[in-house]
Amino acid sequence: MKIANAVTGYVGPSNAMLLAQHDDVVALDLLEEKVELLNNKQLLIVDKKQQSLRK
Fold first, then answer.
1. Which sign does the torsion angle of CA 20, 26, 29, 34 carry?
2. What is the pLDDT of residues 20-36, one digit of tens each?
3. CA distance 35 to 54
4. Fewer CB atoms inside 10 Å of the end CB: C or N, the chain?
5. Mean of the per-residue pLDDT values for the chain?
6. What is the model's pLDDT at position 23?
7. How far apart are CA 49 and CA 32, in angstroms?
C-alpha cells in the first residue's frame, strides 16, 4: 500500500514510521528540512519507541 503523510508535526512522524514498517510512506511538509530528517531516519522528537523502529 502507498500512504501519504501530510502532517509532520508531533504525531505525524510517529505514525509515518509505524506505517513504513510494512507500506510505502511519503511525508509532505512545507519545511524541506523535516522531510530530509525523516528520509535519513532522524527523529524530530526524541521518543524511545521511535528510536527502536528506525533500526
1. positive
2. 889 998 888 888 888 88
3. 15
4. C
5. 79
6. 92
7. 24
Measured CA distances, 53 to 4, 30, 42 (Å): 19, 25, 11
Maximum CA extent, the chain: 28
CA dihedral of residues 35, 41, 27, 49 (deg, nearest 10): -130
- 32 or 44, which is more confident? 32
One-letter amino acid of 20: A
- For residue 21 the three cell numbers come to 514498517
Distance from the first to the final alpha carbon of the chain: 21
- What does the block give as the cell for 32? 524541506
Tell me the pTM. 0.58
